[in-house]
Amino acid sequence: MVMLSHYKNYNPSIHKSAFVAKDAVITGDVTIDEESSIWFKTVIRGDVAPTKIGKRVSIQDLCMLHQSPNNPLIVEDDVTVGHQVTLHSAIVRKNALVGMGSIILDGAEIGESAFVGAGSLVPPGKKVPPHTLVMGRPAKVVRKLTEDDYKEMERVRKSYVEKGHYYKTETDLGLDF
């Protein structure tokens, strides 16, 4: 059962083309733009500051998104957020990929087309440069991205837009808006 709920005077705003799994929890000041997908068991609480999710973003299974006071969470267009990621009051720039199990903390900024390797910890205030691969705990730049990296990031991004469309139109596992 999906849980969409207000928090005080704020209600989630979800574009009609987005896929939201029925067992996701979304509360408060949360905006989800077109063709984005919010997958199974994900929690997005907009009860401290706004959360803005752009176009064609996938927030995969078991993710947790939250904020600190006066510090919104912003996920720009065409971002992939892997399974079981925690995003907390960070900025993820367009075309980035955050690998499975990563934790991105307050004030961190993931640069445009950056790739955060699975299981990484991006500490508060860390700026990940655009077009780089970062990995580790704490995350450190490993190298510049290659053409193969960009192709794989694009493949994943497109596959989740397609999966979102399929699950929204061909199954009863998502919400109807």
UniProtKB/TrEMBL annotation:
What does the record list as coiled-coil region(s)?
none
User: What keywords are assigned to this protein?
Assistant: Transferase
Question: What InterPro entries does the entry give?
Answer: LbH_gamma_CA-like, Transf_Hexapept/Carb_Anhydrase, Trimer_LpxA-like_sf
The Gene Ontology terms for molecular function here are:
transferase activity
Q: Which Gene3D superfamilies match?
A: Hexapeptide repeat proteins
Could you tell me what this protein is called? Answer: Carbonic anhydrase or acetyltransferase, isoleucine patch superfamily
Q: Which organism is it from?
A: Ornithinibacillus halophilus
Q: What is the lineage of its organism?
A: Bacteria, Bacillati, Bacillota, Bacilli, Bacillales
